[in-house]
Structure formats: structure tokens, C-alpha cells
Amino acid sequence: MKKRTIQQEILLVLNDCTSNKKFLNKISLKPGENNTWVEQLEDACMNGLLYEILPGMINKTRMGKKLLIWQAKRKTGCLEMELGEMNYCEIDYPFSISPNYFMPEKSLN
Q1: Dist CA 109 CA 106 (whole Å)
Q2: pLDDT tens column, 55-86
Q3: Where are the domains of the chain?
């Protein structure tokens, strides 16, 4: 039987007032830095903040370790985080939570 790797996608909605307040409270904005708050949030998530703002929501490996956050994609109004057991896992796009992948097919229904 083929061994399946664990992968997970998390979509952080950025246009919501409640989530914006929660994110801004967790990251310390650096006034002299040229990065936007979304870029700073992305950097903070890549460095472990994602586990702090979503405790218990992120899967673990079969060995009980944290999944690797291997990619963050900035989309319109959201930040898509891709996690997996390995540094790179191919996302099964028909089952993705990203609206960019399932919305074009929805128009065919």
C-alpha cells in the first residue's frame, strides 16, 4: 500500500476586521521597515506564529512533530499557507481550499 504524506492548507482571511485585529496584536509592526503588515504577518507565520494563532488546528506528522510551513502565497484578501511533512508536497488542487482552484470549475455546473 502506498504511503501518503500529510499536507494541510490554511487560508488566513485578511479583509475581516476581527482577524486583522487578532493578527496585528500578535505581530509587532516595525515602524522603520518597508514591508507592509501583510508581508510582516507572512514572515511571522513562516517563523512559527501560525501555530500560536491557530492552536490545535494544525495537523501533526505521524511521529507527532509539527508540519513544515513550506509555502505562503499572498492572494487578494487572503494569505494561503501550505504545510506538509516534507519541504515540498504537490497540492491536490481539485481538493484545495483556495478559491483560485475550485471557482473556475464551479461556473461549469
Answers
A1: 6
A2: 888 888 888 888 888 888 888 788 888 888 87
A3: 7-106
